[in-house]
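Final report, closing paragraph on structural work. Over the funding period we assembled a curated collection of sequence-structure pairs, and we close with a single example.
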Amino acid sequence: MPSSSPAGSKVIDVHAHVTPQRFQRAVLGGSLWHGMTPADGELDNLKNRWAPDRRLEEMDALGVDVQLVSPTDCFYQYHQDPEVTATIAAECNDEVAEMARDHPGRFVGLGTLPLQDTDRAVAEMDRGMRQLRLAGFMIDDHVNGLLYDHPVFDPFWEAAEALGAFIFVHQGAPTSVAYRTQKYFLLNSVGNLVDRALTFGSLVYGGVMDKYPRLTVCLGHAGGYVPYAIDRMDKGWQMWPDSRGKSQDRPSTYVGRFLYDTVTYTDRNLRFLIDVAGIDHVVFGTDWPAPMVVVDPVRRIESSPVLTPEERQAILRGNMAARLPVS
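Its predicted structure, as stored:
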């Protein structure tokens, strides 16, 4: 079905995942896929098994014109041998690029990278951007416990800036909360948000955002606890000068350097995110097809009583269209 939106005003979902069909064919056929098993692909969620045509039907029903499709976070595989992870990343990236080529104007590819080996990650980023025409990459909040202020990641950030890659930050497993408790699903419902605030802090205090001023970094799940933690981070920055790292100003001055998706679930939190980050930095996201997906996401924005018509348009269409033109 063709897009129902007027030309130049497509609804773009930045937060949508795919479990690659080539992985499914292998593991459902009884084989391992580069060391991965059926338990790795979230296949208990039947929507993860859908082929692109069935996915498009769901997008049409939801009013979503374009998905930035990223391999499900279980395909990070940073703990494996770098050569194996590089192969996994290349195959995942080939598949999301195929989806985009086969369905132009409906899918845009976000790849994955073997970030435990920076040289391999940069090489695959270059291939993904130049040859596969991906828009960018989804990354975890850390790489085997190492945060992104570490200098080993400088070549990655340098390449991301030079190539104009859209970097979408989305947690993997385990989150930091998992080291305190495995109960009550807190490792996800709280841990995702904690990890995003740690990523923000490491990129700001570590000087990454100053060193690479043209980076485009989107913090998934509405930036996690960033909007709620920023005042306390400012207070700490003011009171403890020796702990400012390489940051050149208060953390709150960096909030506008990032993008934030709309996976908030309530009008109250969406309004707060906009008031803190600014409407120009909030983009539409759904977390489809995860169990934590935002239900009826387009209608939710279109009918929200806390948004102005201009804000609805900016979130659903304008903000991402300005950064990622889709024909």
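The mean pLDDT is 95. The radius of gyration is 19 Å. We thank the funder for supporting this effort.
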